[in-house]
Amino acid sequence: MSQPPPPPPNLPPPGGFGPPEQPPYGAGEPTVGDGIAIPGTPPPPPGTPPMAPPVVPGGQPGQPGYGYPQAPPPQAPPGQPPAPSPYQSPYAAGPAATEGAGFGAPTSGTGFGAPTSGAGFGTPTAPGPYGPATGGAGFGAVPPTPPGTGRKRPNSRLLLAIAGVFALLLAGGGAVVLFTGDDGSSTAGDANGDGDGGGGEDGGGEAEGAEGGTGGGEGGGLPTEPIQASLAWEVPSPEVTEEAGIIDARGTWLLDDAFVRVVPEGLVSYDLETGEENWSLPFELSEGSCLPSQNVSENRIALLQGRDCEALTVVDIAAGEEIMTMPLDSEWPTDTNSSPAILGDTVAVGTGVGSMGFSISQQEKLWEASSTDNCKEVAYAVVDDMFISQMGCGWLAEEGGSIRATNEAGDELWKWDFEGTFEDQPLTVDSVISVEPLVVTATVGEDALAAGAKRIFVIDESHQEIAVQIEYDADRYMNPCEVNTFLNCWLGQVHDGFLYLPTSVPYGDNAVVAFDLSTGQPLYEVPAINGGQIWPFDVQDGKILAYQAASDTLEGMVVAIDPATEEATPVMALDRQAREKEYALMAGIFTHDQIALWHNNTLVLSNRSFYSSDGPEVPSVLTYR
Protein backbone atom coordinates (compact mmCIF):
# COMPACT_ATOMS: atom_id res chain seq x y z
CA MET A 1 0.00 0.00 0.00
CA SER A 2 1.38 3.42 -0.92
CA GLN A 3 2.10 5.82 1.90
CA PRO A 4 1.40 9.58 1.98
CA PRO A 5 4.36 11.79 1.03
CA PRO A 6 6.18 13.73 3.76
CA PRO A 7 4.86 17.23 4.37
CA PRO A 8 6.66 20.25 2.91
CA PRO A 9 9.12 22.00 5.23
CA ASN A 10 7.60 24.06 8.04
CA LEU A 11 4.13 22.63 7.44
CA PRO A 12 2.26 20.27 9.73
CA PRO A 13 1.81 16.66 8.63
CA PRO A 14 -1.12 16.01 6.26
CA GLY A 15 -4.59 15.42 7.56
CA GLY A 16 -7.11 17.82 8.96
CA PHE A 17 -7.24 15.83 12.19
CA GLY A 18 -3.54 15.18 12.71
CA PRO A 19 -1.14 12.35 11.96
CA PRO A 20 -2.27 8.80 12.58
CA GLU A 21 0.18 8.17 15.40
CA GLN A 22 -0.69 11.23 17.47
CA PRO A 23 -3.34 11.37 20.23
CA PRO A 24 -6.46 13.40 19.55
CA TYR A 25 -6.87 17.04 20.27
CA GLY A 26 -6.67 17.96 23.92
CA ALA A 27 -3.44 16.38 25.24
CA GLY A 28 -4.57 12.81 25.03
CA GLU A 29 -8.24 13.35 25.82
CA PRO A 30 -10.75 11.93 23.33
CA THR A 31 -11.97 15.17 21.78
CA VAL A 32 -11.06 14.29 18.22
CA GLY A 33 -11.32 10.58 18.81
CA ASP A 34 -14.99 10.84 19.71
CA GLY A 35 -15.87 11.90 16.22
CA ILE A 36 -13.04 10.74 13.98
CA ALA A 37 -11.16 7.53 14.51
CA ILE A 38 -7.38 7.97 14.22
CA PRO A 39 -5.73 5.31 12.08
CA GLY A 40 -2.72 3.34 13.16
CA THR A 41 -3.89 2.20 16.58
CA PRO A 42 -5.36 -1.15 17.59
CA PRO A 43 -9.16 -0.98 17.53
CA PRO A 44 -10.50 -1.89 20.98
CA PRO A 45 -14.23 -2.42 21.14
CA PRO A 46 -16.01 0.94 20.82
CA GLY A 47 -19.04 1.92 22.79
CA THR A 48 -20.43 4.22 25.35
CA PRO A 49 -19.57 3.91 29.04
CA PRO A 50 -21.06 0.82 30.68
CA MET A 51 -24.45 1.11 32.19
CA ALA A 52 -26.76 -0.95 34.27
CA PRO A 53 -27.50 -4.63 33.77
CA PRO A 54 -30.91 -5.51 32.45
CA VAL A 55 -33.59 -5.62 35.10
CA VAL A 56 -37.30 -6.27 35.17
CA PRO A 57 -38.88 -5.61 31.75
CA GLY A 58 -42.49 -4.83 31.09
CA GLY A 59 -45.25 -7.38 31.28
CA GLN A 60 -46.51 -9.51 34.11
CA PRO A 61 -45.42 -13.12 34.48
CA GLY A 62 -47.99 -15.70 33.57
CA GLN A 63 -50.08 -13.50 31.31
CA PRO A 64 -51.53 -15.18 28.21
CA GLY A 65 -50.33 -14.30 24.75
CA TYR A 66 -51.29 -10.94 23.31
CA GLY A 67 -51.43 -11.16 19.62
CA TYR A 68 -51.81 -13.16 16.52
CA PRO A 69 -49.53 -14.84 13.96
CA GLN A 70 -47.88 -12.36 11.64
CA ALA A 71 -47.68 -12.85 7.89
CA PRO A 72 -44.20 -13.17 6.42
CA PRO A 73 -42.87 -9.99 4.84
CA PRO A 74 -43.15 -9.61 1.06
CA GLN A 75 -40.13 -10.30 -1.07
CA ALA A 76 -38.23 -7.36 -2.50
CA PRO A 77 -37.79 -7.16 -6.26
CA PRO A 78 -34.20 -7.43 -7.45
CA GLY A 79 -32.33 -4.18 -7.93
CA GLN A 80 -31.43 -2.73 -11.29
CA PRO A 81 -27.87 -1.78 -12.28
CA PRO A 82 -27.28 1.93 -11.68
CA ALA A 83 -26.22 4.39 -14.33
CA PRO A 84 -22.59 5.55 -14.31
CA SER A 85 -21.87 8.13 -11.63
CA PRO A 86 -21.97 11.80 -12.67
CA TYR A 87 -20.16 12.77 -9.45
CA GLN A 88 -17.91 15.77 -9.84
CA SER A 89 -15.13 15.94 -7.28
CA PRO A 90 -14.95 18.77 -4.78
CA TYR A 91 -11.19 18.33 -5.14
CA ALA A 92 -8.89 18.12 -8.09
CA ALA A 93 -9.37 14.64 -9.48
CA GLY A 94 -6.80 12.15 -8.28
CA PRO A 95 -5.17 9.62 -10.54
CA ALA A 96 -7.56 7.06 -11.90
CA ALA A 97 -7.39 3.72 -10.14
CA THR A 98 -6.29 1.35 -12.84
CA GLU A 99 -7.16 -2.30 -12.66
CA GLY A 100 -4.92 -4.09 -10.23
CA ALA A 101 -2.89 -0.95 -9.48
CA GLY A 102 -0.29 -1.75 -6.87
CA PHE A 103 -1.40 -5.37 -6.65
CA GLY A 104 -0.12 -6.96 -9.84
CA ALA A 105 -2.05 -8.07 -12.89
CA PRO A 106 -5.78 -8.56 -12.32
CA THR A 107 -6.53 -12.26 -12.46
CA SER A 108 -9.51 -14.25 -11.31
CA GLY A 109 -9.41 -14.76 -7.57
CA THR A 110 -6.77 -12.11 -6.84
CA GLY A 111 -9.27 -9.72 -5.33
CA PHE A 112 -8.66 -6.83 -7.71
CA GLY A 113 -9.31 -5.84 -11.28
CA ALA A 114 -12.35 -6.73 -13.34
CA PRO A 115 -15.62 -7.02 -11.41
CA THR A 116 -16.00 -10.75 -11.80
CA SER A 117 -17.43 -13.16 -9.29
CA GLY A 118 -14.79 -14.31 -6.86
CA ALA A 119 -12.59 -11.20 -7.14
CA GLY A 120 -12.75 -10.14 -3.50
CA PHE A 121 -14.75 -13.05 -2.15
CA GLY A 122 -14.33 -16.77 -2.56
CA THR A 123 -16.80 -18.99 -4.33
CA PRO A 124 -20.21 -18.96 -2.59
CA THR A 125 -20.27 -21.79 -0.12
CA ALA A 126 -22.78 -24.11 1.46
CA PRO A 127 -24.15 -23.13 4.86
CA GLY A 128 -21.32 -22.83 7.36
CA PRO A 129 -21.02 -22.54 11.14
CA TYR A 130 -23.49 -19.63 11.23
CA GLY A 131 -26.30 -21.19 9.26
CA PRO A 132 -28.77 -22.45 8.69
CA ALA A 133 -30.16 -20.94 11.82
CA THR A 134 -32.01 -23.09 14.30
CA GLY A 135 -35.61 -22.61 15.27
CA GLY A 136 -36.38 -21.04 18.60
CA ALA A 137 -38.69 -22.33 21.31
CA GLY A 138 -28.42 -5.10 28.16
CA PHE A 139 -26.77 -3.52 27.26
CA GLY A 140 -24.16 -2.07 29.56
CA ALA A 141 -21.77 -3.18 32.25
CA VAL A 142 -21.13 -6.81 33.00
CA PRO A 143 -22.90 -7.76 36.24
CA PRO A 144 -22.56 -11.12 37.95
CA THR A 145 -24.12 -13.50 35.45
CA PRO A 146 -26.98 -15.70 36.62
CA PRO A 147 -26.54 -19.43 36.15
CA GLY A 148 -27.34 -20.63 32.67
CA THR A 149 -26.86 -17.36 30.80
CA GLY A 150 -23.55 -18.44 29.32
CA ARG A 151 -22.03 -14.94 29.33
CA LYS A 152 -19.09 -14.53 31.68
CA ARG A 153 -16.94 -11.70 32.84
CA PRO A 154 -14.15 -10.99 30.37
CA ASN A 155 -10.68 -12.20 31.18
CA SER A 156 -7.88 -9.87 32.22
CA ARG A 157 -6.68 -9.40 28.65
CA LEU A 158 -10.11 -8.21 27.58
CA LEU A 159 -10.41 -5.96 30.59
CA LEU A 160 -7.12 -4.33 29.65
CA ALA A 161 -8.42 -3.79 26.14
CA ILE A 162 -11.61 -2.31 27.52
CA ALA A 163 -9.67 -0.05 29.84
CA GLY A 164 -7.75 1.16 26.83
CA VAL A 165 -10.97 2.40 25.27
CA PHE A 166 -11.62 4.74 28.14
CA ALA A 167 -7.98 5.69 28.64
CA LEU A 168 -7.25 6.53 25.00
CA LEU A 169 -10.46 6.40 22.97
CA LEU A 170 -8.36 6.37 19.85
CA ALA A 171 -10.01 3.70 17.79
CA GLY A 172 -13.66 3.11 17.23
CA GLY A 173 -14.55 0.90 14.28
CA GLY A 174 -17.89 2.45 13.83
CA ALA A 175 -21.23 1.74 12.67
CA VAL A 176 -23.52 4.20 11.06
CA VAL A 177 -27.27 4.18 11.41
CA LEU A 178 -29.41 6.69 9.59
CA PHE A 179 -33.14 6.77 10.10
CA THR A 180 -35.82 8.63 8.20
CA GLY A 181 -38.84 9.32 10.34
CA ASP A 182 -42.27 9.52 8.84
CA ASP A 183 -42.42 13.12 10.05
CA GLY A 184 -39.68 14.06 7.62
CA SER A 185 -36.91 14.14 10.20
CA SER A 186 -33.76 12.15 9.48
CA THR A 187 -32.06 10.59 12.45
CA ALA A 188 -28.64 8.99 12.63
CA GLY A 189 -29.15 6.15 14.98
CA ASP A 190 -25.41 2.46 12.67
CA ALA A 191 -23.43 1.68 12.62
CA ASN A 192 -21.25 -1.21 11.79
CA GLY A 193 -23.62 -1.54 10.21
CA ASP A 194 -22.88 -1.38 12.14
CA GLY A 195 -26.29 2.00 11.58
CA ASP A 196 -29.21 4.07 7.14
CA GLY A 197 -30.65 6.56 4.83
CA GLY A 198 -30.18 3.30 3.10
CA GLY A 199 -33.61 1.99 3.84
CA GLY A 200 -36.51 1.84 1.45
CA GLU A 201 -37.00 4.78 -0.83
CA ASP A 202 -34.91 7.01 1.42
CA GLY A 203 -31.77 5.06 0.70
CA GLY A 204 -32.29 4.36 -2.96
CA GLY A 205 -33.23 0.68 -2.74
CA GLU A 206 -35.30 -2.02 -1.14
CA ALA A 207 -32.71 -2.86 1.49
CA GLU A 208 -32.19 -1.07 4.75
CA GLY A 209 -29.09 -0.27 6.72
CA ALA A 210 -29.82 -1.77 10.05
CA GLU A 211 -27.43 -0.85 12.83
CA GLY A 212 -29.86 -0.13 15.60
CA GLY A 213 -33.03 0.29 13.57
CA THR A 214 -34.74 -0.19 10.27
CA GLY A 215 -35.42 3.19 8.83
CA GLY A 216 -38.05 4.97 10.91
CA GLY A 217 -41.47 4.56 9.38
CA GLU A 218 -40.25 2.06 6.78
CA GLY A 219 -40.84 -1.10 8.84
CA GLY A 220 -44.31 -1.96 7.55
CA GLY A 221 -46.40 -0.39 10.30
CA LEU A 222 -47.03 -1.39 13.91
CA PRO A 223 -49.51 -4.15 14.81
CA THR A 224 -53.00 -3.14 15.88
CA GLU A 225 -52.74 -5.45 18.89
CA PRO A 226 -49.67 -6.46 20.93
CA ILE A 227 -47.85 -9.55 19.70
CA GLN A 228 -47.03 -12.48 21.96
CA ALA A 229 -43.89 -13.42 20.03
CA SER A 230 -42.11 -16.73 19.68
CA LEU A 231 -38.42 -17.16 19.01
CA ALA A 232 -38.54 -17.95 15.29
CA TRP A 233 -34.86 -18.74 14.77
CA GLU A 234 -31.41 -18.10 16.17
CA VAL A 235 -27.76 -18.20 15.12
CA PRO A 236 -24.93 -19.38 17.38
CA SER A 237 -21.88 -17.26 18.10
CA PRO A 238 -18.52 -18.01 16.49
CA GLU A 239 -15.89 -19.71 18.58
CA VAL A 240 -13.24 -17.28 19.84
CA THR A 241 -9.88 -18.59 21.01
CA GLU A 242 -8.19 -17.35 24.17
CA GLU A 243 -5.39 -16.05 21.99
CA ALA A 244 -7.75 -13.94 19.90
CA GLY A 245 -9.74 -12.76 22.92
CA ILE A 246 -12.32 -10.87 20.86
CA ILE A 247 -13.73 -10.95 17.33
CA ASP A 248 -15.64 -8.03 15.83
CA ALA A 249 -17.98 -8.56 12.88
CA ARG A 250 -19.62 -5.20 12.21
CA GLY A 251 -22.28 -4.87 9.59
CA THR A 252 -26.00 -5.78 9.50
CA TRP A 253 -28.63 -5.02 6.90
CA LEU A 254 -32.32 -5.83 6.43
CA LEU A 255 -34.13 -6.51 3.19
CA ASP A 256 -37.84 -7.21 2.99
CA ASP A 257 -37.21 -10.95 3.09
CA ALA A 258 -33.64 -11.32 4.37
CA PHE A 259 -31.23 -10.43 7.15
CA VAL A 260 -27.64 -9.96 5.95
CA ARG A 261 -24.66 -9.66 8.25
CA VAL A 262 -20.90 -9.71 8.41
CA VAL A 263 -19.44 -12.76 10.14
CA PRO A 264 -15.70 -13.25 10.73
CA GLU A 265 -15.36 -15.32 7.55
CA GLY A 266 -17.52 -13.32 5.16
CA LEU A 267 -21.06 -12.20 4.39
CA VAL A 268 -24.12 -14.34 5.12
CA SER A 269 -27.77 -13.82 4.16
CA TYR A 270 -30.60 -15.47 6.14
CA ASP A 271 -34.21 -15.87 5.16
CA LEU A 272 -35.99 -13.50 7.53
CA GLU A 273 -38.92 -15.86 8.04
CA THR A 274 -37.17 -19.21 8.47
CA GLY A 275 -33.56 -18.38 9.26
CA GLU A 276 -32.36 -20.64 6.44
CA GLU A 277 -29.14 -19.47 4.83
CA ASN A 278 -29.78 -17.88 1.42
CA TRP A 279 -26.14 -17.48 0.43
CA SER A 280 -22.69 -16.78 1.82
CA LEU A 281 -19.61 -15.10 0.36
CA PRO A 282 -16.35 -15.89 2.15
CA PHE A 283 -13.74 -13.15 2.53
CA GLU A 284 -10.54 -13.75 0.59
CA LEU A 285 -8.65 -10.62 1.60
CA SER A 286 -9.54 -10.15 5.26
CA GLU A 287 -11.47 -11.68 8.13
CA GLY A 288 -14.27 -9.16 8.63
CA SER A 289 -12.16 -6.69 10.59
CA CYS A 290 -12.56 -3.89 8.02
CA LEU A 291 -15.70 -1.78 7.96
CA PRO A 292 -18.58 -1.94 5.48
CA SER A 293 -20.99 0.83 4.56
CA GLN A 294 -23.80 1.09 7.06
CA ASN A 295 -26.29 2.09 4.40
CA VAL A 296 -27.58 0.16 1.40
CA SER A 297 -28.09 1.79 -1.98
CA GLU A 298 -29.98 -0.05 -4.73
CA ASN A 299 -29.47 -3.30 -2.78
CA ARG A 300 -25.71 -2.74 -2.78
CA ILE A 301 -23.25 -2.30 0.04
CA ALA A 302 -19.59 -1.27 -0.04
CA LEU A 303 -16.94 -2.75 2.20
CA LEU A 304 -13.19 -2.58 2.65
CA GLN A 305 -10.91 -5.61 2.60
CA GLY A 306 -7.23 -6.40 2.91
CA ARG A 307 -4.63 -6.43 5.66
CA ASP A 308 -4.80 -2.64 5.89
CA CYS A 309 -8.33 -2.34 4.47
CA GLU A 310 -6.80 -1.09 1.23
CA ALA A 311 -9.28 -2.72 -1.19
CA LEU A 312 -12.86 -1.68 -1.98
CA THR A 313 -15.55 -4.27 -2.73
CA VAL A 314 -19.20 -3.71 -3.72
CA VAL A 315 -21.76 -6.50 -3.21
CA ASP A 316 -25.40 -6.87 -4.26
CA ILE A 317 -26.83 -8.29 -1.03
CA ALA A 318 -30.20 -9.12 -2.59
CA ALA A 319 -28.60 -11.42 -5.16
CA GLY A 320 -25.54 -12.43 -3.14
CA GLU A 321 -23.22 -11.31 -5.94
CA GLU A 322 -19.96 -9.42 -5.87
CA ILE A 323 -20.13 -6.45 -8.25
CA MET A 324 -16.50 -5.41 -8.22
CA THR A 325 -13.30 -5.22 -6.16
CA MET A 326 -10.51 -2.68 -6.75
CA PRO A 327 -7.56 -1.23 -4.84
CA LEU A 328 -7.95 2.16 -3.19
CA ASP A 329 -4.43 3.10 -4.33
CA SER A 330 -4.44 6.14 -2.06
CA GLU A 331 -1.85 8.38 -0.43
CA TRP A 332 -3.99 8.22 2.71
CA PRO A 333 -3.34 5.28 5.04
CA THR A 334 -6.38 3.10 5.68
CA ASP A 335 -7.11 0.73 8.52
CA THR A 336 -9.98 -0.90 10.40
CA ASN A 337 -11.43 2.52 11.24
CA SER A 338 -11.74 3.64 7.62
CA SER A 339 -15.35 3.55 6.48
CA PRO A 340 -17.13 3.63 3.08
CA ALA A 341 -20.55 5.05 2.21
CA ILE A 342 -22.43 4.18 -0.99
CA LEU A 343 -24.92 6.20 -3.03
CA GLY A 344 -25.95 5.02 -6.49
CA ASP A 345 -22.81 4.47 -8.55
CA THR A 346 -20.52 6.31 -6.12
CA VAL A 347 -18.61 5.13 -3.05
CA ALA A 348 -16.98 7.67 -0.73
CA VAL A 349 -14.34 6.48 1.74
CA GLY A 350 -13.29 8.43 4.82
CA THR A 351 -10.05 7.51 6.56
CA GLY A 352 -10.23 9.86 9.55
CA VAL A 353 -7.50 12.08 8.11
CA GLY A 354 -8.40 12.14 4.42
CA SER A 355 -10.91 10.84 1.88
CA MET A 356 -11.51 9.63 -1.64
CA GLY A 357 -14.38 8.70 -3.95
CA PHE A 358 -14.90 5.99 -6.59
CA SER A 359 -17.18 5.13 -9.49
CA ILE A 360 -18.51 1.57 -9.24
CA SER A 361 -19.33 1.09 -12.92
CA GLN A 362 -16.09 2.62 -14.19
CA GLN A 363 -13.86 1.32 -11.38
CA GLU A 364 -12.18 4.70 -11.27
CA LYS A 365 -11.15 7.05 -8.53
CA LEU A 366 -13.23 10.21 -8.82
CA TRP A 367 -11.50 12.36 -6.25
CA GLU A 368 -9.00 12.31 -3.41
CA ALA A 369 -8.32 14.90 -0.73
CA SER A 370 -4.91 16.48 -1.12
CA SER A 371 -2.40 16.58 1.71
CA THR A 372 -1.91 20.27 0.93
CA ASP A 373 -5.59 21.13 1.46
CA ASN A 374 -6.17 23.03 4.68
CA CYS A 375 -9.70 21.58 4.98
CA LYS A 376 -10.37 17.93 4.22
CA GLU A 377 -13.41 15.70 4.31
CA VAL A 378 -12.59 12.81 6.62
CA ALA A 379 -15.85 10.88 7.18
CA TYR A 380 -19.00 10.09 5.18
CA ALA A 381 -22.48 8.66 5.61
CA VAL A 382 -25.60 8.57 3.45
CA VAL A 383 -28.98 9.96 4.52
CA ASP A 384 -32.00 10.56 2.27
CA ASP A 385 -30.03 10.26 -0.98
CA MET A 386 -27.39 12.67 0.30
CA PHE A 387 -23.76 12.24 1.18
CA ILE A 388 -23.27 13.73 4.65
CA SER A 389 -19.61 14.50 5.25
CA GLN A 390 -17.45 15.80 8.07
CA MET A 391 -14.62 18.21 7.29
CA GLY A 392 -11.79 19.39 9.52
CA CYS A 393 -9.60 22.42 8.95
CA GLY A 394 -6.08 23.14 10.15
CA TRP A 395 -3.74 21.21 12.39
CA LEU A 396 -5.77 18.85 14.59
CA ALA A 397 -8.88 20.68 13.31
CA GLU A 398 -8.01 23.60 15.54
CA GLU A 399 -9.49 25.96 12.94
CA GLY A 400 -12.88 24.23 13.05
CA GLY A 401 -14.59 22.49 10.17
CA SER A 402 -18.00 21.77 8.71
CA ILE A 403 -20.81 19.28 8.24
CA ARG A 404 -22.20 19.36 4.72
CA ALA A 405 -24.60 17.55 2.41
CA THR A 406 -24.08 16.85 -1.29
CA ASN A 407 -26.01 14.85 -3.85
CA GLU A 408 -24.42 12.07 -5.87
CA ALA A 409 -23.43 14.57 -8.56
CA GLY A 410 -21.36 16.44 -5.98
CA ASP A 411 -23.64 19.49 -5.77
CA GLU A 412 -23.60 21.04 -2.32
CA LEU A 413 -27.08 21.12 -0.80
CA TRP A 414 -26.24 22.74 2.52
CA LYS A 415 -23.27 23.30 4.79
CA TRP A 416 -22.79 24.19 8.44
CA ASP A 417 -19.43 25.76 9.26
CA PHE A 418 -18.24 25.79 12.85
CA GLU A 419 -15.38 27.58 14.53
CA GLY A 420 -12.57 25.86 16.35
CA THR A 421 -13.70 27.33 19.67
CA PHE A 422 -16.92 27.64 21.66
CA GLU A 423 -17.23 29.71 24.81
CA ASP A 424 -13.49 30.45 24.43
CA GLN A 425 -12.64 26.75 24.64
CA PRO A 426 -11.58 24.26 21.96
CA LEU A 427 -14.58 22.78 20.12
CA THR A 428 -14.72 19.36 18.45
CA VAL A 429 -17.88 18.21 16.68
CA ASP A 430 -18.03 14.47 17.28
CA SER A 431 -21.14 12.91 15.74
CA VAL A 432 -24.43 13.64 13.99
CA ILE A 433 -27.63 12.51 15.73
CA SER A 434 -30.04 13.91 13.16
CA VAL A 435 -29.86 15.62 9.77
CA GLU A 436 -33.32 17.26 9.58
CA PRO A 437 -32.99 19.12 11.83
CA LEU A 438 -29.22 18.98 12.17
CA VAL A 439 -28.42 17.82 15.71
CA VAL A 440 -24.81 17.09 16.66
CA THR A 441 -22.78 15.97 19.65
CA ALA A 442 -19.65 17.91 20.53
CA THR A 443 -16.83 18.20 23.04
CA VAL A 444 -16.03 21.60 24.52
CA GLY A 445 -12.68 22.02 26.24
CA GLU A 446 -9.48 20.02 26.25
CA ASP A 447 -10.67 17.48 28.82
CA ALA A 448 -13.39 15.35 27.27
CA LEU A 449 -14.08 13.69 30.62
CA ALA A 450 -14.59 16.94 32.49
CA ALA A 451 -18.04 17.87 33.75
CA GLY A 452 -20.00 19.68 31.07
CA ALA A 453 -17.55 18.83 28.28
CA LYS A 454 -20.07 16.79 26.31
CA ARG A 455 -22.71 18.89 24.55
CA ILE A 456 -25.62 18.41 22.15
CA PHE A 457 -26.35 21.28 19.74
CA VAL A 458 -29.33 21.96 17.48
CA ILE A 459 -28.37 23.90 14.33
CA ASP A 460 -30.75 26.45 12.84
CA GLU A 461 -32.68 25.66 9.65
CA SER A 462 -30.38 27.81 7.50
CA HIS A 463 -27.33 25.94 8.85
CA GLN A 464 -25.70 29.16 9.96
CA GLU A 465 -25.35 28.85 13.72
CA ILE A 466 -26.08 26.90 16.87
CA ALA A 467 -29.72 27.64 17.65
CA VAL A 468 -30.27 25.60 20.82
CA GLN A 469 -28.15 23.72 23.30
CA ILE A 470 -29.82 20.62 24.75
CA GLU A 471 -29.81 20.43 28.54
CA TYR A 472 -27.63 17.33 28.41
CA ASP A 473 -25.72 15.91 31.37
CA ALA A 474 -23.37 13.05 30.48
CA ASP A 475 -23.70 11.70 34.02
CA ARG A 476 -27.48 11.57 33.91
CA TYR A 477 -28.10 10.51 30.29
CA MET A 478 -26.58 7.79 28.15
CA ASN A 479 -24.34 8.82 25.29
CA PRO A 480 -26.58 8.66 22.22
CA CYS A 481 -23.63 7.91 19.94
CA GLU A 482 -21.03 5.19 19.75
CA VAL A 483 -17.57 6.54 20.51
CA ASN A 484 -15.44 7.35 17.46
CA THR A 485 -18.27 7.16 14.96
CA PHE A 486 -19.77 9.83 12.74
CA LEU A 487 -23.44 8.85 12.62
CA ASN A 488 -24.02 5.81 14.83
CA CYS A 489 -26.35 7.50 17.31
CA TRP A 490 -29.29 5.12 17.57
CA LEU A 491 -29.78 5.75 21.31
CA GLY A 492 -30.86 9.27 20.37
CA GLN A 493 -34.07 9.31 18.32
CA VAL A 494 -35.33 12.56 16.77
CA HIS A 495 -39.00 12.86 15.85
CA ASP A 496 -41.42 15.75 15.37
CA GLY A 497 -39.36 18.38 17.17
CA PHE A 498 -38.18 16.19 20.04
CA LEU A 499 -35.01 14.30 20.92
CA TYR A 500 -35.53 11.08 22.89
CA LEU A 501 -32.65 9.97 25.13
CA PRO A 502 -32.43 7.24 27.78
CA THR A 503 -31.31 8.09 31.28
CA SER A 504 -28.35 6.29 32.79
CA VAL A 505 -29.38 4.59 36.03
CA PRO A 506 -26.97 1.79 36.98
CA TYR A 507 -28.68 -1.26 38.47
CA GLY A 508 -32.09 0.37 38.57
CA ASP A 509 -35.05 1.68 36.61
CA ASN A 510 -34.27 4.19 33.89
CA ALA A 511 -36.53 6.14 31.54
CA VAL A 512 -36.68 7.71 28.08
CA VAL A 513 -36.66 11.52 28.27
CA ALA A 514 -38.16 13.77 25.57
CA PHE A 515 -36.26 17.03 24.94
CA ASP A 516 -37.91 19.93 23.12
CA LEU A 517 -35.55 20.85 20.28
CA SER A 518 -36.84 24.43 20.23
CA THR A 519 -35.80 25.09 23.83
CA GLY A 520 -33.40 22.30 24.74
CA GLN A 521 -35.43 21.51 27.86
CA PRO A 522 -36.68 18.06 28.91
CA LEU A 523 -40.48 18.04 28.88
CA TYR A 524 -41.43 14.56 30.03
CA GLU A 525 -40.02 11.10 30.64
CA VAL A 526 -41.40 7.62 30.06
CA PRO A 527 -40.28 4.74 32.30
CA ALA A 528 -40.30 1.08 31.34
CA ILE A 529 -43.58 -0.72 31.86
CA ASN A 530 -43.38 -2.27 35.35
CA GLY A 531 -39.84 -0.96 35.75
CA GLY A 532 -36.48 -1.98 34.37
CA GLN A 533 -34.22 -0.72 31.62
CA ILE A 534 -35.54 0.86 28.41
CA TRP A 535 -33.75 2.16 25.29
CA PRO A 536 -35.27 3.90 22.25
CA PHE A 537 -34.09 2.46 18.94
CA ASP A 538 -36.44 3.42 16.09
CA VAL A 539 -39.40 5.50 14.94
CA GLN A 540 -42.51 3.82 13.51
CA ASP A 541 -45.96 5.22 12.75
CA GLY A 542 -45.17 8.45 14.58
CA LYS A 543 -44.18 6.58 17.74
CA ILE A 544 -40.83 5.88 19.34
CA LEU A 545 -39.99 2.19 19.47
CA ALA A 546 -38.07 1.14 22.57
CA TYR A 547 -36.61 -2.13 23.77
CA GLN A 548 -37.18 -3.15 27.37
CA ALA A 549 -34.31 -5.40 28.36
CA ALA A 550 -34.62 -8.95 29.59
CA SER A 551 -33.54 -9.62 33.17
CA ASP A 552 -32.43 -12.73 34.97
CA THR A 553 -36.10 -13.45 35.73
CA LEU A 554 -38.28 -11.92 32.99
CA GLU A 555 -38.17 -11.72 29.21
CA GLY A 556 -37.85 -8.48 27.27
CA MET A 557 -40.46 -6.44 25.43
CA VAL A 558 -40.81 -3.93 22.59
CA VAL A 559 -42.94 -0.89 23.47
CA ALA A 560 -44.10 2.19 21.59
CA ILE A 561 -43.90 5.65 23.15
CA ASP A 562 -46.77 7.82 21.93
CA PRO A 563 -45.85 11.55 21.98
CA ALA A 564 -49.57 12.39 22.18
CA THR A 565 -50.12 10.52 25.46
CA GLU A 566 -46.50 10.57 26.70
CA GLU A 567 -46.90 6.91 27.63
CA ALA A 568 -45.53 3.54 26.49
CA THR A 569 -47.75 0.69 25.36
CA PRO A 570 -46.74 -2.93 24.59
CA VAL A 571 -45.98 -3.85 20.98
CA MET A 572 -44.31 -7.25 21.35
CA ALA A 573 -43.74 -9.47 24.38
CA LEU A 574 -40.76 -11.71 23.73
CA ASP A 575 -40.62 -15.46 24.16
CA ARG A 576 -40.36 -16.40 27.83
CA GLN A 577 -38.83 -19.77 26.98
CA ALA A 578 -35.91 -17.94 25.35
CA ARG A 579 -35.32 -15.49 28.22
CA GLU A 580 -31.92 -16.88 29.17
CA LYS A 581 -30.69 -16.64 25.58
CA GLU A 582 -32.03 -13.10 25.24
CA TYR A 583 -30.41 -12.02 28.49
CA ALA A 584 -27.09 -13.64 27.54
CA LEU A 585 -27.07 -11.96 24.13
CA MET A 586 -28.05 -8.47 25.28
CA ALA A 587 -25.96 -8.34 28.48
CA GLY A 588 -22.84 -7.38 26.58
CA ILE A 589 -19.91 -5.26 27.64
CA PHE A 590 -20.48 -2.21 25.45
CA THR A 591 -23.80 -0.54 24.79
CA HIS A 592 -23.57 -0.41 21.01
CA ASP A 593 -22.31 -3.96 20.54
CA GLN A 594 -25.87 -5.32 20.68
CA ILE A 595 -28.58 -3.92 18.45
CA ALA A 596 -32.34 -4.22 18.12
CA LEU A 597 -33.86 -4.14 14.62
CA TRP A 598 -37.55 -3.91 13.69
CA HIS A 599 -39.07 -4.78 10.32
CA ASN A 600 -42.61 -5.87 9.38
CA ASN A 601 -43.45 -6.84 12.96
CA THR A 602 -40.29 -8.89 13.25
CA LEU A 603 -37.66 -8.14 15.89
CA VAL A 604 -34.02 -9.07 15.33
CA LEU A 605 -31.57 -8.90 18.24
CA SER A 606 -27.99 -9.13 16.97
CA ASN A 607 -24.54 -9.11 18.51
CA ARG A 608 -21.45 -7.90 16.68
CA SER A 609 -18.64 -8.48 19.19
CA PHE A 610 -17.72 -11.94 20.43
CA TYR A 611 -15.45 -12.84 23.34
CA SER A 612 -13.48 -15.92 24.27
CA SER A 613 -15.04 -15.67 27.74
CA ASP A 614 -18.56 -16.12 26.35
CA GLY A 615 -20.21 -19.42 27.09
CA PRO A 616 -21.47 -21.68 24.30
CA GLU A 617 -25.06 -20.73 25.12
CA VAL A 618 -24.57 -17.11 24.00
CA PRO A 619 -26.27 -16.66 20.59
CA SER A 620 -25.28 -14.07 18.02
CA VAL A 621 -28.78 -13.53 16.55
CA LEU A 622 -32.30 -14.00 17.95
CA THR A 623 -35.30 -13.35 15.71
CA TYR A 624 -38.85 -13.01 17.04
CA ARG A 625 -42.24 -12.76 15.42
From TrEMBL:
Give the highest taxon in the source lineage: Bacteria
Presence of keyword Lipoprotein? no
Query: Which keywords annotate this record?
Result: Membrane, Transmembrane, Transmembrane helix
Q: Where are the transmembrane segments?
A: 158-179
Biased composition, Gly residues: where in the chain? 192-202, 210-222
Q: Does the keyword Transmembrane apply?
A: yes
**Locations of Pro residues compositional bias?**
1-23, 40-56, 70-87
Q: Where is this region: Disordered?
A: 1-153, 186-225
Biased-composition ranges, Low complexity, are: 88-97, 104-125
SUPFAM superfamilies listed in its UniProt record = Quinoprotein alcohol dehydrogenase-like (SSF50998)
What name goes with this protein?
Answer: PQQ-binding-like beta-propeller repeat protein
Provide the taxonomic classification. Bacteria, Bacillati, Actinomycetota, Actinomycetes, Kitasatosporales
